[in-house]
Amino acid sequence: QVQLVESGGGLVQPGGSLRLSCTVSGSIFKFLTVAWYRQGPGKPRELVARITNGGSTTYHDSVKGRFTISRDNAKSTVYLQMNSLKFEDTAVYYCNLDPHLPYWGQGTQVTVSS
Question: What is the pLDDT of residues 29-54, one digit of tens each?
């Protein structure tokens, strides 16, 4: 069973940056498309960014130009570099596959506040 562990969240001021990490268990990581999702207060969960096994990336319109997803297959880790953070980026961020598995990790809280 694939396990996903997110880390790197925190409290940041508007305009600040954070880097999230997601470590994925299992030897098949390099074959997987992995995505970051988020769920803000009172909002449905949404896909923020995804990266294929070949390194192709796609982003939600709201984060284009500000967020960068990357992967390190040697470390079985996917990163989400978040720059120019806005209040509306406040959410619990989760990583999962795309399409997502029928279960989720604990997520990591990102709070953008002055």
Answer: 889 999 999 999 999 999 999 999 99
Q: What is residue 104's DSSP assignment? A: -
Please report the DSSP string for 1-38 in residue order: ---EEEE--EEE-TT--EEEEEEE-STTGGG--EEEEE
DSSP string, 64-76: TTTEEEEEEGGGT
Show the tokens assigned to 50: 């995804």
Q: Is the peptide bond before 44 cis (omega within 30 degrees of 0)?
A: no
Task: For residues 22 and 36, give the distance between their C-alpha atoms in angstroms, rounded to a whole number.
Answer: 9
Q: How far apart are CA 31 and CA 48, in angstroms?
A: 20
Q: How many helices (H) and strands (E) does the chain have?
A: 0, 10
